[in-house]
Amino acid sequence: MSQKLLEAFKVALKSNKPTFRRYIVLGSFDGLLVALSIIISSAVSKTPISKIIPLTISGIVGVSVSSMWNTFLAEYKEKEEELKELERHVMRSLKGTIYDYSFKISVMLATLAHTLSPFIGLVPLIIYIITKNITLTILLSVVSLSIIGVIYEGELKEKLTTIALMVLAGLVSALLSIFITTTL
Questions:
Q1: Euclidean distance between CA atoms 106 and 38, whole angstroms
Q2: Which one, of 155, 152, 179, 175, lies nearest residue 163 by Cα?
Q3: How far apart are CA 5 and CA 154, in angstroms?
């Protein structure tokens, strides 16, 4: 049984690497933007750091919980359909096989990746706690977004486009946070 699970784990990793990468990128991106928005809004409204810390962590936890549930539900349904389709092709049940286990492991790994990746949003929080400088926090968060863009799949040109779009999203998020905080 343990050998079958190990084989299923290897199959899940090999066949779902792009899915796991995508969930890591999506969760990291969400965590960074949520954290950055909370930190900027809090700093602009002169919220003490002692309050910014729990506000930011709670925002990241909210994104993480949302990511966990939506990934689990979406991936479980997708893998269930894939297994049914495969069973139709081979004209027998695959319950208890490496395929069955690898689909279940894939769901769990995708869920884990998307659940944990928003915590990269702790990076701007740590930067702000150390520097107490919102401009530097924004700039280093942009660097973090660029690194996430590099992780995304594709050729160099596609990666550069992804980096540019992620950086733009980070800057738009920062500007909207400043605008909303200062005008409402």
A1: 33
A2: 152
A3: 31
Which amino acid is residue 101, in one-letter code? Y
Cβ-contact 145, 32 below 8 angstroms: yes
**Hey, CA dihedral for 92, 94, 96, 98, is it positive or negative?**
positive
98-116 and 49-90 helices cross at what angle (nearest 10)? 160
Burial of residue 53, with CB atoms counted within 10 A of its CB: 0-12 exposed, 13-18 middle, 19 or more buried: middle
Query: 22 — phi, psi (to 5°)?
Result: -60, -45
* Domain boundaries, given as residue ranges, for the chain: 2-183
- The residue written with tokens 């954290």 in the block is 35
Q: Rg of the Cα trace of the chain?
A: 20
Determine how many CB atoms are found less than 10 A away from the CB of residue 153: 12
Integer Cα distance of 35 and 40 in angstroms: 8
Identify residue 36 by its one-letter amino acid code. L
CB contact at 8 A, 43 and 134: yes
Q: Which two tokens stand for residue 35?
A: 């954290």
Which residue's entry shows tokens 């869920």?
Answer: 111
Mean pLDDT split into 10-residue runs, the chain, 184 residues: 90 94 96 98 96 98 98 97 95 94 97 98 97 96 92 87 93 95 93
